[in-house]
């Protein structure tokens, strides 16, 4: 396993919820940025949400704003993505990515800024 491992994906009905976890090892989650990305079949990877560990500033894609919440638990060295009111179009492989160190108070959804990537976890929203 690498320094970033995702978990929590699965099959859920439309309107349901899932919580994804991004466990980080080998780094202390103090000055960091974590981004969640997803890729649906036949589509480009897109940024979903990100968070700055320095400020807890969070940014969301318009498509998930108001439904998804990103949060960090420094004691657990884990970042979570709470996904509510899920829709079929949320289906895809979700990836967690880490940039360390990161001293900016904001975060970025530019995938090229992230150094460490997890293997991904499948999220399927279907009835």
Sum this structure up briefly.
This protein is an all-beta fold and 127 residues long. It has no helices and 11 strands.
What can you tell me about this protein's structure?
This protein is mainly beta and 127 residues long. Helix content is 0%, strand content 46%. It is built from no helices and eleven strands. It has strands at residues 4-7, 10-12, 18-24, 33-39, 46-52, 58-60, 68-73, 78-83, 92-99, 116-117, 121-125. Strands 2, 4, 5, 6, 9, 10 and 11 form a seven-stranded mixed sheet that branches. A hairpin with a 4-residue loop joins strand 7 and strand 8 (78-83). It starts with a strand and ends with a strand. 35% of the residues are buried. The model has no long low-confidence stretch (mean pLDDT 95).
Which ranges are low-confidence, i.e. pLDDT below 50, for 5 or more consecutive residues? none
Amount of beta strand: over 45%
Q: Biggest sheet, in brief?
A: 7 strands, mixed
Number of strands: 11
Distance between the termini: 33 Å
- Helicity level, as a percent range? under 10%
Count up the helices.
0
The coarse overall form would be globular
Series of secondary-structure elements, N-terminal to C-terminal: EEEEEEEEEEE
Structural class: mainly beta
- In angstroms, what is the radius of gyration? 13 Å
| Nearest-integer average pLDDT | 95
């Amino acid at each position: 396993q690498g320094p970033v491992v995702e978990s929590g994906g699965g099959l859920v009905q439309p309107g349901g919820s899932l919580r994804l976890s991004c466990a980080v090892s080998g780094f202390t989650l103090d000055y960091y940025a974590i981004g969640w990305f997803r890729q649906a079949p036949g589509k480009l990877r897109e940024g979903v949400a990100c968070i700055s560990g320095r400020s807890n500033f969070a940014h969301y894609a318009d498509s998930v704003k108001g439904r998804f919440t990103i949060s960090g638990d420094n004691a657990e060295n884990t970042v979570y993505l709470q996904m509510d009111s899920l829709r079929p179009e949320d289906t895809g492989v979700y990836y967690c990515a880490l940039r360390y160190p990161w001293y900016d108070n904001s975060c970025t959804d530019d995938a090229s800024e992230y150094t460490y990537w997890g293997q991904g976890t499948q999220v399927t929203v279907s009835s």
